[in-house]
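Working notes for the structural subgroup meeting. M.R. asked for a predicted model of this chain before we commit to crystallization trials. I am recording the input and output together here so anyone reviewing the notebook later can reproduce the run.

Input as submitted:
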Amino acid sequence: MEDKIALITGGALGIGRAIALAFAQEGANVIIADRLLDEMENTVSDAKALGRYAVGIQVDMSQREALKSFVDRVFSYFRLVHILVNLNPA
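Returned structure, recorded in token form:
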């Protein structure tokens, strides 16, 4: 997993948070997407504490108009994504 890029939607809490931190622990850099800003920032901070690059993007995936902006932001941080974990109920 070293230096792979993992995008986890719904990554602020619960299973998504656990997955994001597991990827970070294994050496992946993580993009954490969620609508819950404070919780997302906590997960980003914990991933950074593991020595990985981590970024959070606040987004409500149920809002269709937000998706293009979200994708643009993802690719402004990284040129590609190796792993996608989509835990959104929308």
